[in-house]
Design goal:
Rossmann fold, 22 helices, single chain, alpha/beta, globular, four-stranded parallel β-sheet
């Protein structure tokens, strides 16, 4: 497994320890890329900080909470509305963000009075919200503001409110992963066990490491409900502050994202004796195995199998349709920590794509080890790449599509490569059986999109021939596809010629016989 030094990083030779190419039959322990280390000066990292990992990833998905950042306005603005952590209380936690807006004078003279003033104003502005989390930032941590004391003062003055303090300034770890750890431990130390929840089932779980991106949590919760399982709390997607205080009453911790939330699971096991069971909601086979494991724990395997049989029969034919058309397409898998290994094997086995590169900006070596072990030989694995390294990798590997975040995604598009937002999804949710088909559809549409093909034409020098005209325009102008004369034969002709028109199958033409609806044509 040879180490790989990018040409653009030859002036920083230490970066050669942070990238490897997977070789044939090699032992992963021989040459893993270094990971979760302090950023090398000059490498221009794109990592998030520990504050971001605590507030943005773990804290913000809690729905009935005022999330207050004690620091400059830029910290809270940078962590606002960049992920689709939806909730069933009208997305309160996404609509609003709160900050004390610390200025230079506050750094000099202290900002505790400013913090208290902002906390009281926030509770008065939203009288129905009685819970608050305060996040420490670098500036106020360096001057030593005692936010725990201020929080206690406010709770004494307002007995009906409860406040959680998260001391996770940006410098508290090498990357956002340090913030995951900080808020996990702070929550179990200060809030778990302070509320007694109502138990309504013989089978009770905490669903941990789930953030309800575009409804992921709701999909999985539906499976658990159909099995007769009570989800006591979700840490933290669409999670209620008080429900999360009652995590100690669960019978089992079901863990999805091990990178961000294994810490609290391990502490719950040690302190309260609650077992931990790792699951995976992505992919037909991983999800089926996960439901079976949960069913086996509670002795209700038959309920799990009934769901698996029903969902597989409904959605597997559609997944196979996409697999035929995605087979052999090259993918750069550049998401967050756990998706690196949740997806690598599943998208290859169930969608037919070839993973040519994996990377993580904040993952540990354990994440990289699992990710590398599940992708194909020759794959390039990179820890904490910067923009230039990413661009060089794209130019070398020539992938068909990239799964990554919005910032890298925007600049790879300039190289003519489509991307899917691995952090917030394009058209999620992607968990569950239907969600996995939806993911395959998004990959298909990204690769075959006529809009993307048109975008690669340089109108300053490339002649646009009739054959290159935008396909939608051709459909509109083609009389054979008008509403009056459209037929299943014509549609078969077009959808067979242009695979990228698969989206048309979702539309139904009312004048066709039910047997000839578009959904039956493709």
């Amino acid at each position: 497994m040879p180490k790989h030094l990018f040409k653009c990083s030859e002036c920083i030779p230490e970066r050669g320890e942070h990238a490897v190419i997977k070789g044939e039959g090699e032992d992963l322990t021989d040459a893993l890329p270094l990971g979760y280390l302090n950023t090398i000066p000059g490498s221009i990292t794109e990592r998030g900080c520990a504050y971001c990992g605590a507030k943005h990833v773990i804290g913000t998905p809690m729905k009935d909470v005022i999330h207050m950042s004690h620091g400059p306005i830029g910290c809270t603005y940078d962590t606002w509305q960049t992920k689709r952590y939806i909730s069933d209380n009208d997305n309160f936690q996404i609509k609003y963000t709160f900050a004390t807006d610390v200025k230079e004078k506050n750094i000099i003279f202290g900002a505790e009075k400013l913090l208290k003033k902002n906390m009281i104003e926030a509770f008065e502005a939203f009288p129905n919200i009685k819970r608050m989390t305060i996040y420490q930032t670098c500036g106020t941590a360096l001057i030593g503001d005692d936010i725990e004391a201020v929080a206690q003062e406010v709770m004494e003055e307002k007995p009906d409110v409860d406040i959680f303090v998260c001391n996770s300034p940006g410098f508290a770890g090498p990357s956002q992963s340090g913030g995951h750890h900080k808020i996990n431990i702070a929550w179990i130390n200060n809030k778990v066990g302070t509320y007694e929840p109502k138990i309504t089932s013989d089978y009770v779980i905490n669903y941990v490491g789930e953030y309800n991106i575009q409804g992921d949590q709701e999909v999985m919760q539906d499976f658990f409900k159909r099995m007769g399982i009570q989800v006591l709390s979700t840490f933290t997607g669409n999670g209620s502050y008080d429900d999360l205080r009652g995590m100690h009453k669960a019978h089992l911790n079901v863990l999805e994202c091990a990178r961000s939330a294994e810490y609290i699971c391990n502490e719950l096991r040690q302190r309260y004796g609650i077992p931990r069971l790792d699951i995976d909601g992505f992919g037909f086979e991983p999800l089926s195995n996960s439901l079976r494991k949960v069913g086996l724990f509670f002795g209700i395997e038959d309920r799990a199998q009934a769901i698996i049989d029903e969902e597989t029969a409904r959605w597997k034919p559609e997944l196979d349709w996409y697999k035929e058309r995605l087979k052999g397409k090259k993918v750069c898998l550049w998401p967050g920590g756990s998706k690196l290994w949740h997806w690598a094997h599943a998208i290859h086995e169930e969608m037919g794509v070839e993973v040519v590169s994996v990377y993580t900006k904040f993952g540990h070596q354990g994440d990289m080890e699992k990710g590398i072990s599940r992708c194909e030989e020759g794959a390039l694995a990179i820890d904490d790449p910067n923009e230039l390294e990413s661009l060089e990798a794209v130019q070398t590997l020539k992938p068909d599509v990239i799964f990554t975040g919005k910032r890298p995604g925007e600049y790879v598009k300039k190289l003519g490569v489509p991307y899917l937002n691995a952090h917030a999804y394009h058209n999620g949710p992607w968990k569950g059986y239907e969600g996995w088909v939806r993911f395959a559809r998004d990959i298909y549409n990204a690769i075959y999109s006529p809009m993307h093909q048109l975008a690669m034409i340089d109108i300053s020098k490339d002649e646009i021939s009739k054959e290159n005209r935008f396909l939608t325009q051709r459909l509109i102008s083609d009389a054979s596809l008008s509403e009056d004369v459209v037929s299943s034969t014509t549609l078969r002709e077009y959808t067979g010629k242009y695979d990228c028109l698969v989206g048309i199958r979702d539309k139904e033409y009312p004048h066709l016989e039910s047997s000839e609806k578009i959904t039956d044509v493709v």
